[in-house]
């Protein structure tokens, strides 16, 4: 048993080892994905393959709770010192979650026995498949998303398996980047191994092993302490991604968060069936899969910033994601664009916790981490240029104690932009605007963070733009506690001109010389009653251009004259305003949508689809959406009957009552 | 008497910290060195200077008229930023890009927190005015220069003290900014104006704009302080023109500092590293980890093969500083950091600190929380002699009470708890140093640790042991290393030109032209600082492979400007050294040319006086697993050549050096104490 009093010493050594690995990888990697987007993770794992330490300064935030155990076990040969195994297959062991993510792990031996593992992932620029970068929402099968390697040894006793590298190089578009990044990650795993040996020397083998267990126990105890303070109850929340596929119906994620004492169940029943697009999230039904719990890490860390980030904190949580649904698809569902769905998954988890701990949670963040790429021709060099322009992310939600962060923040804080001067020098585009969008933050006692608005002009014909992960053009980030929903995202070609073209939820555009493309994110939701926002803050927001004078009057009941608060008029306006509903504000679009698609309607749809064979479900959903008229469960039944009539081969669903018999 | 004074030549370095102003004075003809500390007087900044000079006169026989060099490090700039008491600025920039300052580079620290946020910008959005002007990346203007009258009227109405003009692509052509500045100066001569290209003309708008803003923000405070300083020195009869220490580890004149304010923001930490490097070189060491521990924080820096390391994203309070600065990492753990027990019975240290007021419990100034210093006192490492030049009376009993409260909660022994506090504090520093060394790609086992500051020697040897570092060097005067650093520093001006071109034969003539312009600028700068000695110009280039976003700085020989393969090879090799790979086929971009102009400062050969006080050793009780007698040496009694084994304590008036078991100590002829840990 490790001495708990000095557990922090071991925790610091473990974190130092993880930070060391991250710096080694960041320093030596080749690709922009790893070096600039920092789409990578590294971790230390115990002998079962459960993560016990991650870095906090570099890399992505997704994997403190990852377990490699299933991947480790799928390698059939015994492990020897110097071996490194790897996989990128989302359907073998459920370690990787889309094909570009290549995970590696390495055993750490002490006295001929494995005492720990070092591991990590890099996002490879391209893994082959149907499209460059291997990612497109339109793909429908995993086989289109690139070459897959089930768990196998990549390095045997320090020697790379050249055959594997050759197969990979033959199948991908940028082999040098992949191999360079993979070798950098192997270097990081070696660093981690060396640091684990130093820890074993410092703390003794037994001390190390029991200490690692104590670190996980401590994280678990911290998580349980947080849950114990939250009132028991069932907290339901649903949210929507704009489009489920090229069919363009909304994709619903549904959660019932059940808090009981110091434990929690996250039941995702009622979420959409697995989709015929690449928006599926391959959790494999693991009740503690890290990809389902990312929103939980944010909440735990926000409620206790001293929490240890390791797999111990997942122990009090159990996720239920029924097989054949968007959060637990079966092979061969495509999964490449799961990060869009994951952003929505986080906002669903945030929404459930807002009900459980309303005093301590912010409103919804913008939740669309849109990455804009341009392919155009440089008339000076006569070359085709492909470049990332900038991420367009929106603000954080209003917090319990301050306004939402403008233009980024909350669960998007890891993204970095590229200076305009650099982009304009390298890429033939000219920026027209890069800044914050007025009136885009949800009104509230604490205003939501403003959206980012970026507009640029191209000069060559047929310039192609992709804006991956665009969302929130149809459903707003919600406000809480009387706060209002935020502004919607948008993409417009030639805004403010007679031939302006609104692109809706589309994530691609083709531009002609002189065309301007404007991409705007959503804002963050507001928190608390806007009528309680101090008038001076509203006046300041107006002076700063964050809020228009009209919105100050309409949303906040604050009248200004010459920039100063008109106290009397403000008092009159505010007295006349009805008190807002203390719950969520979703905005008019969702209210309209849910007038038809009520909770009962969705319950009925879920029941029908769950009773169908998996490969029929998305088809049936689409056909029901095509035919539905009216509202509520009866409308769903009628639309389903009409679908069955049109498609007599559609099997009749096995309903829960029948299944029970 | 008069004749004797005329023979003397005093050089004085002064550095100001949170609690003390440190003086390091060298009489150049005799090589005599004196140091002292004076309590700071926040109500009357500059008064401590008078006190210090008076004390030097009284104790060391200094004659102010014989001061030929006066070098000052000041925190007035950085404090202005941290306390947000700077100028009210207006920013004139391109319409459509008013939020560049707020968006910064988007990424935020603390990225697991839903409450993460950036600091509020130093210029609020309502003081930012978009002008309908625009320059394209190739330098073409797409609009005629706009009229500033309206923006200026609004800025004045809002009470602006000064204006920052910061426009896109001014790194390529500063004329657009200059025209607007001229117009402002014509219409509003009472406002000060800085343009982004004059402050630091580098590509990347956020970095350039924010540097200009920091400069303007501290300008009035710094300028006022420097005027007062010059007047005080003049009143004291000091003939030397005061010099200021800079973040780049060099010096400039106080006159220069009035406009180039941003260059001095991190001078305190920088000159500490310069001083440490100088001491290390004298002791024959070239690979050093410096450790400066104060009450609330610990600062670390690497000296690699005799070279101080530079960065361009050091933090000034919450803001990154983008001019070349000595690279120093900092963590909020110091002697005053408070220990606490969480609800699960796990002990933690920091980030809360008792600071210097009320300070650790054992200082007897009203502090009751258990701090790292209290833990060291409980274990017997501290509290046997006077502290802080007799200005502190250590009360170990109060430390025992404070630590005892935690021990009771933990149901553990008092000394055991104290030891755990020390171990945890050291492990917090361990994380920071590990990150630093992995970023730099060095193996600390090849380095020696040099602790200084009030708390460095207290914990330094424990940290070295945790890091597996085999050697520690404790300088004779750990309290005045920054002041010493200023004393031995060179004049140093940094100049930059963004080139942003593919590195090919076509680019070479442009590079040569840029180099000539930079060299001229550098020489003129040194002349303006009153330098008439040799001029040392160092050229370097920021380069990268096409497609990368980060450049690496590579030193260039000016002769290479006509030798393309030499530049390419230098870049490939530098890339391999830092990143472990290169790409000999890859296209190279040259982003910036940089030039440092150096004018050498005095390089005194310091021999500490051979005369030492009589050897003084006594036994005190220290808890190392159990209580045991440990020898306590007075530093003043340690003569060159003395050797002894740890555990031991070396006490001196401004710090205590704790030497753990397993270390052997020897004193070199400059009175540094070297520790070697047995393998």
TrEMBL record, chain A:
GO molecular function, one term: 5-oxoprolinase (ATP-hydrolyzing) activity
InterPro entries, alphabetized: Hydantoinase_B, Oxoprolinase-like
Domain Hydantoinase B/oxoprolinase residues, every copy: 3-530
Gene Ontology, cellular component aspect: cytosol
One GO BP: glutathione metabolic process
Classification via PANTHER family: 5-OXOPROLINASE RELATED (PTHR11365), HYPOTHETICAL 5-OXOPROLINASE (EUROFUNG)-RELATED (PTHR11365:SF23)
Protein name: Hydantoinase B/oxoprolinase family protein
Organism expressing this protein natively: Psychromarinibacter sediminicola
Organismal lineage: Bacteria, Pseudomonadati, Pseudomonadota, Alphaproteobacteria, Rhodobacterales
From TrEMBL, chain B:
Lineage: superkingdom: Bacteria
Signal sequence extent: none
Name of this protein: Hydantoinase/oxoprolinase family protein
Listed InterPro entries: ACX-like_C, Hydant_A_N, Hydantoinase_A, Oxoprolinase-like
A GO molecular function held by the record: 5-oxoprolinase (ATP-hydrolyzing) activity
All copies of domain Acetophenone carboxylase-like C-terminal, residue ranges: 508-675
GO cellular component: cytosol
Pfam families to which the protein is assigned, alphabetical: Hydant_A_C, Hydant_A_N, Hydantoinase_A
Occurrences of domain Hydantoinase A/oxoprolinase (ranges): 208-492
TM segment ranges: none
GO biological process: glutathione metabolic process
Hydantoinase/oxoprolinase N-terminal domain: residues covered: 11-185
Source organism (scientific name): Psychromarinibacter sediminicola
């Amino acid at each position: 048993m490790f001495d708990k009093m000095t557990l922090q010493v071991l925790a610091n050594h473990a974190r130092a080892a993880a930070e060391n690995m991250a710096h080694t990888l960041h320093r030596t990697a080749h690709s922009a994905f790893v070096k600039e987007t920092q789409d990578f993770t590294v971790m230390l794992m115990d002998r079962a393959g459960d993560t016990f330490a991650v870095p906090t300064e570099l890399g992505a935030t997704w994997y403190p709770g990852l377990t490699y155990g299933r991947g480790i076990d799928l390698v059939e040969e015994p492990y020897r010192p110097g071996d490194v195994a790897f996989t990128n297959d989302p359907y073998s062991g459920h370690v990787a979650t889309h094909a570009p993510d290549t995970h590696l792990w390495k055993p750490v031996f002490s006295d001929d026995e494995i005492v720990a593992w070092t591991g990590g992932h890099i996002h490879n620029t391209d893994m082959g498949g149907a499209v460059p970068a291997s990612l497109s929402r339109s793909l429908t099968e995993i086989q289109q998303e690139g070459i897959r390697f089930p768990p196998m040894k990549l390095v045997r006793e320090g020697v790379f398996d050249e055959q594997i590298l050759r197969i990979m190089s033959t199948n991908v578009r940028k082999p040098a980047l992949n191999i360079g990044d993979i070798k950098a990650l192997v270097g990081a795993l070696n660093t981690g191994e060396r640091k684990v040996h130093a820890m074993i020397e410092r703390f003794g083998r037994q001390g190390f092993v029991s200490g690692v267990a104590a670190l996980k126990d401590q994280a678990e105890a911290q998580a349980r302490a947080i849950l114990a303070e939250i009132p028991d109850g069932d907290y339901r929340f649903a949210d929507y991604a704009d489009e489920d596929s090229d069919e363009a119906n909304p994709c619903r994620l549904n959660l019932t968060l059940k808090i009981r004492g110091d434990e929690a169940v996250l039941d995702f029943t009622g979420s959409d069936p697995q989709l015929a697009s690449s928006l599926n999230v391959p959790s494999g039904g693991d009740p503690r899969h890290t990809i389902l719990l990312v929103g939980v890490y944010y909440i735990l860390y926000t409620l206790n910033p001293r929490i240890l980030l390791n797999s111990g904190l997942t122990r009090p949580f159990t996720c239920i994601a029924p097989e054949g649904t968007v959060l637990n698809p079966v092979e061969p569902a495509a999964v490449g664009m799961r990060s869009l769905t994951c952003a929505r998954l986080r906002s669903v988890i945030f929404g459930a916790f807002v009900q459980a701990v309303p005093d301590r949670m912010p409103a919804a963040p913008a939740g669309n981490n849109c990455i804009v790429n341009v392919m155009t021709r440089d008339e000076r060099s006569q070359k085709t240029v492909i470049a990332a322009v900038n991420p367009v992310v929106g603000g954080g939600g209003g917090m319990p104690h301050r306004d939402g962060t403008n233009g980024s923040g909350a669960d998007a804080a890891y993204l970095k932009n590229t200076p305009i001067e650099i982009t304009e020098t390298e890429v033939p585009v000219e920026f027209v605007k890069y800044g914050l969008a007025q009136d885009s933050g949800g009104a509230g006692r604490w205003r939501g963070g403003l959206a980012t608005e970026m507009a640029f002009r191209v000069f060559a014909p047929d310039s192609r733009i992709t804006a991956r992960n665009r969302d929130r053009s149809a459903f707003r980030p919600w406000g809480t506690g009387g706060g209002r929903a935020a502004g919607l995202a948008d993409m417009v070609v030639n805004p403010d001109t007679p031939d302006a073209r609104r692109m809706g939820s589309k994530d691609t555009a083709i531009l002609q010389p002189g065309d301007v493309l404007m991409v705007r994110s959503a804002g963050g939701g507001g928190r608390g009653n806007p009528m309680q926002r101090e008038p001076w803050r509203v006046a300041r927001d107006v002076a700063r251009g964050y809020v228009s004078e009209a919105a100050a009057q309409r949303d906040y009941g604050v009248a200004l004259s010459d920039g100063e608060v008109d106290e009397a008029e403000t008092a009159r306006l505010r007295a006349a305003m009805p008190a807002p509903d203390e719950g969520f504000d979703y905005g008019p679009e969702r209210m309209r949508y849910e007038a038809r698609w009520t909770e009962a309607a969705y319950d009925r749809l879920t029941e029908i689809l769950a009773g169908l064979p998996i490969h029929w479900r998305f088809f049936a959903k689409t056909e029901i959406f095509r035919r539905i008229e009216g509202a509520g469960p009866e409308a769903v039944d009628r639309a389903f009957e009409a679908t069955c009539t049109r498609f007599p081969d559609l099997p009749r669903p096995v309903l829960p009552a029948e299944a029970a018999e | 008497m008069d004749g004797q004074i005329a023979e003397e030549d005093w050089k004085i370095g002064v550095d100001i910290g949170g609690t003390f102003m440190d003086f390091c004075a060298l009489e150049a003809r005799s090589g005599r060195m004196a140091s002292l500390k004076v309590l700071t007087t926040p109500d009357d900044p500059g008064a401590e200077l008078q006190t210090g000079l008076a004390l030097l006169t009284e104790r060391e026989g200094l004659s102010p008229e014989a001061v030929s060099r006066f070098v000052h490090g000041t925190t007035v700039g950085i404090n202005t930023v941290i306390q947000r008491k700077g100028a009210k600025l207006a920013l004139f920039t391109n319409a459509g890009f008013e939020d560049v300052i707020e968006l910064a580079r988007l990424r935020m620290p603390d990225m697991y927190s839903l409450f993460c946020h950036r600091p509020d910008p130093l210029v609020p959005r309502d003081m930012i005015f978009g002008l309908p002007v625009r320059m394209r990346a190739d330098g073409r203007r797409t609009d005629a220069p706009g009229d500033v009258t309206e923006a200026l009227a609004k800025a004045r109405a809002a009470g602006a003290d000064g204006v920052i003009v910061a426009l896109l692509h001014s790194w390529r052509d500063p004329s657009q900014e200059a025209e607007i500045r001229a117009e402002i100066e014509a219409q509003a001569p009472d406002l000060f104006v800085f343009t982004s290209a004059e402050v630091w003309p580098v590509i990347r708008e956020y970095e350039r704009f924010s540097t200009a803003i920091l400069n303007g923000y501290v300008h009035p405070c710094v300028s006022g302080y420097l005027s007062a300083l010059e007047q005080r020195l003049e009143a004291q009869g000091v003939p030397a023109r005061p010099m200021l220490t800079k973040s780049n580890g060099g010096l400039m004149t106080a006159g220069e500092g009035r406009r180039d304010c941003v260059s001095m923001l991190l001078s305190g930490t920088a000159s500490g590293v310069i001083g440490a490097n100088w001491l290390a070189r004298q002791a024959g060491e070239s690979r050093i980890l410096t450790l400066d521990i104060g009450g609330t924080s610990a600062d670390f820096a690497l000296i690699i093969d005799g070279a101080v390391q530079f960065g361009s994203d050091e933090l000034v309070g919450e803001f990154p500083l983008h001019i070349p600065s000595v690279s120093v990492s900092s963590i909020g753990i110091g002697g005053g950091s408070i220990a606490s027990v969480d609800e699960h019975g796990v002990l933690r240290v920091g980030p809360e600190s008792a600071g210097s007021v009320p300070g650790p419990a054992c200082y007897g100034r009203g502090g009751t929380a258990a701090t790292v210093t209290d833990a060291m006192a409980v274990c017997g490492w501290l509290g046997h002699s006077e502290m802080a030049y007799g200005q502190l009376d250590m009360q170990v009993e109060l430390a025992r009470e404070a630590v005892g409260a935690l021990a009771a909660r933990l149901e553990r022994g008092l000394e055991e708890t104290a030891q755990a506090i020390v171990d945890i504090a050291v492990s917090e520093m361990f994380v920071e140093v590990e990150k630093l060394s992995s970023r730099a790609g060095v193996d600390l086992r090849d380095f020696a640790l040099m602790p200084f500051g009030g708390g460095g020697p207290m914990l330094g040897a424990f940290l070295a042991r945790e890091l597996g570092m085999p050697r520690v060097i404790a300088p004779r005067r750990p309290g005045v290393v920054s002041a010493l650093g200023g004393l031995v520093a060179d004049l140093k001006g940094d100049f930059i030109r963004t080139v942003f071109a593919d590195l090919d034969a076509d680019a070479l003539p442009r590079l040569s032209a840029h180099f000539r312009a930079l060299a001229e600028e550098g020489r003129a700068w040194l002349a303006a600082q009153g330098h008439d000695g040799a001029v040392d110009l160092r050229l370097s280039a920021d380069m990268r492979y096409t497609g990368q976003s980060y450049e690496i700085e590579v030193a260039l020989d000016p002769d290479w400007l006509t030798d393309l393969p030499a530049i390419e090879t230098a870049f490939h090799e530098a890339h391999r050294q830092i990143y472990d790979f290169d790409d000999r086929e890859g296209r190279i971009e040259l982003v910036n040319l940089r030039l440092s102009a150096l004018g050498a400062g005095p390089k005194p050969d310091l021999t500490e006086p051979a005369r030492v006080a009589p050897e003084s050793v006594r036994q005190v009780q220290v808890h190392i697993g159990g209580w045991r007698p440990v020898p306590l040496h007075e530093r003043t009694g340690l003569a060159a050549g003395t050797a002894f084994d740890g555990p031991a304590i070396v006490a001196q008036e401004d710090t205590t050096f704790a030497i753990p078991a397993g270390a052997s100590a020897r004193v070199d002829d400059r009175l540094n104490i070297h520790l070697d840990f047995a393998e």
